[in-house]
Design brief:
heterodimer, A: 215 residues, mainly alpha, two-stranded antiparallel sheet, 4 helices, 2 strands, elongated, B: 167 residues, alpha+beta, Glutaredoxin, 4-stranded mixed beta sheet, 5 helices, 31% helix, 15% strand, Small ribosomal subunit protein mS25 (chain B), ribosomal protein (chain B), Thioredoxin-like_sf (chain B)
């Protein structure tokens, strides 16, 4: 027996044993050989291999299609039934599952911590805002006092000014004494056409006689 | 933007961005910060946005990070979750460091979880692996390894069926 033939025989024996051991009737938990998922695409080593088209007789193709359609219909109904069943079960157990997972519990604990933090920050803010408000009130009161002081000071100054003007008002020119004032003004001639020397003496008009005042 | 221009360009270095510790939980979808440009109580939020927000975005590329300015009397952080809920974190008058440590505690993945994820990631990314989803399709692509028998048959003295054959 050649080596190649021997190898083939051994392979067939092993395959037969495998079938026997994992017959579908005997074992519901059938072991299926791992296969590469189709999503992986063609292996780089098989990239340029062109597979032969299968030659199927027409009547057999018809039969295959009939079986395939039957299979699809049955599978679809089973799948729909399972989906409904799952939906029903999920509705019952959703809450229980959510509570049972550790992650959700952990997140709830985190939220609790955050809640406490927020409360603490809010309390601190209340204190801070109260202090700021008190400070602002103080400042406003001080400013008002300052304003009042400034105002009274200004009023005193104005009062003083008014008093002074009142005193001076006796010398004002009014309608009653305007004629007298005109008379006086005309009577007192003032000549601004004068020169002045280094000693501060005035020389009026064409006079060369110095005087000590300019009038 | 040029590399060394602008305010604190260190914020744009990879080392700085990778040093971030705020890896948000998977359920967080949007991370929003509300703060003002003025005000003592907004200083921590401002600093956090200036120094830490680039790190947060770098560490969480799948999360939307937004800031809202001049729209609030007190600063706060709001995280929107995938369930539609939101988590409100008051950061009024808190420093940048305080905000960071609190966020780490409340809305970020724990160190244990991060370590687990890192190990899983490391296993996936091990350069020595070969096969589907790896850098190498076959170990024969490495120089010094035995070539694929489909391409170049093994020498007879290394083939079991010839070594152990009786005839």
């Amino acid at each position: 027996m050649s080596l190649m033939r021997q190898g083939l025989v051994i392979e067939k024996l092993v395959a037969g044993l495998h079938r026997q051991r994992f017959a579908p009737a005997a074992a519901p938990n059938l072991v299926v050989r791992w296969r590469k998922p189709i999503s992986l695409g063609t292996a780089p080593s098989k990239l340029f291999r062109v597979p032969q088209r299968p030659q199927i007789p027409e009547d057999e193709l018809k039969e295959i299609r009939r079986l395939f359609k039957n299979y699809n219909t049955q599978m679809k109904s089973i799948r729909a039934w399972f989906a409904e069943e799952l939906k029903r079960q999920e509705a019952v157990t959703a809450a229980a599952v959510a509570g049972a997972t550790g992650e959700e519990a952990e997140f709830q604990r985190c939220l609790q911590i955050n809640e406490e933090w927020n409360k603490k920050v809010a309390a601190e803010r209340q204190v801070r805002l109260a202090a700021e408000k008190a400070k602002l009130t103080d400042k406003i009161l001080t400013d008002l006092e300052q304003d009042e002081l400034q105002k009274s000071k200004r009023m005193a100054e104005i009062q003083q000014m008014v008093e002074r003007e009142k005193d001076l008002s006796s010398h004002y020119i009014t309608e009653e004494n305007i004629d007298q004032a005109i008379e006086e003004a005309l009577g007192q001639e003032v000549n601004y056409n004068f020169a002045i020397d280094r000693e501060g003496n005035y020389y009026h008009g064409f006079s060369m006689t110095p005087t000590t005042s300019h009038s | 933007m040029p590399f060394m221009k602008g305010i604190a360009p260190i914020r744009r270095t990879v080392q700085y961005l990778q040093s971030g510790k705020l890896s948000l939980k998977d359920r967080v979808q949007v991370f929003s910060v509300h703060y003002n440009r003025l005000g003592e109580n907004h200083q921590g939020a401002r600093d956090f946005v200036f120094w830490n927000l680039p790190k947060v975005q770098y560490q969480n590329p799948q999360v939307q990070v937004v800031t809202f300015k001049e729209m609030t009397p007190t600063p706060f952080i709001r995280c929107y979750l995938d369930s539609g809920d939101d988590v409100l974190i008051d950061v009024d008058n808190k420093s940048k460091e305080e905000i960071e440590s609190h966020l780490k505690l409340v809305i970020c993945k724990s160190d244990e979880l991060l370590a687990k994820e890192a190990i899983a990631q490391e296993k996936k990314d091990n350069e020595a692996n070969f096969g589907y989803g790896c850098q190498r399709h076959c170990i024969c692509e490495m120089p010094g390894q035995v070539p694929c028998s489909a391409v170049c048959p093994l020498p007879n003295h290394m083939r079991g069926k010839l070594r152990f054959s009786t005839d």
